[in-house]
Design goal:
Distance between the termini: 19 Å
Radius of gyration: 19 Å
Number of strands: 16
Shape: globular
Largest sheet: 8 strands, antiparallel
Length: 278
Amino acid sequence: MRFLQVDTNSLYDLEVSNTSYYNVNRGTDGVADETADNGEMIFRGVVFNGVYGAFGNVNLQQGMSTTFELCFYFTGTEDLAVQDMFFFSFFDLDQGTNTGMTQVYREQLTMTDPESFYVNIDGESLLDFPDDVGTKCTIGAQNGFGDDLFVVGTEIDGADDFYDGYDWAATPLKTAVCESLGGGTEDSFFSNYPCTDVTVTQNGGSVTATSSTKGYGCDNPTDPATQTAVQTARSIMFQFVDTTCMEVEYHAVGDVITSSGRNFLFAGAAFECECAGN
C-alpha cells in the first residue's frame, strides 16, 4: 500500500510492504456489496486496509504474525527519501474476546531500532521522558457511573489480569471506554490516570508494545490529535532520526481464526507535545 503526501508539505509518500507471509481477515460478512473487478468477493480485511479516517491501517488475520517495511519516497517517484527526524505512532492497541477461545486476542507490535519511544505518562513535557515505560493503568472495580466492571467468572477474556477469578462485565465496560456512551474519560475507566494501557518491553534495540484491556468498535479513535483519555492510554509513539525505512512486526496474538482479524492503526505524533518533525 502506498499513502500519498503524508507530510504537511506534501513532499513524501509512505509505502507499506510485507516482508513475510501475510493474510487478512478472510470473512465476508458485512461486505456483500464489495466485489473485485473479476466479480469475486473481497475479504473483510481488504476493505479495512488503507486509509481509515485520519489513520493508515493494516488488517492482520487473527493468530498471524507478519513483518512489514514502511518506507518514505519522494512523492510520485520510486526515489527513497531520508527523514531527518520524525514521530510515528500506533493507536488503539486493545484486545478482543470470544467464547471458547484458549487465550486472549491481544494486539502486539515490535518496532526495530527506533531512536526512542513514548507512552502516556504524567509530565508537562512528554519529550523529557524518552524510553519510559510509564505507569501501567489500573482498573477500579466500578466504572465512573457506579456500575461493576467485573463479574465472577472463568472466561478467558483478560479480566483476571486485574482481578483473579473475574470476567469483564460487557455493558459497563463498553460504557466506560466509549465516548459515544459518555465514557472514554480518565474517571470513567482508570483509577490512576495518567497511565498507559500498553505493556512495553525492550530487547536490544527493539521495542514491543502489547495491549492489556478489551476494546470495542465504539471506542476506536477518529483523529490522532483529539483522542480521549482511554484512546491516549492505548497509544505509543516512536521517534526516528535519519531514517528512510522502518521495520515493524504485527502480531495478532491468540488462536488462528481465518474469518477474524485485528486492525493496526498508525499516523504521525500521537501526543500533544512540542514535537518537531513529520
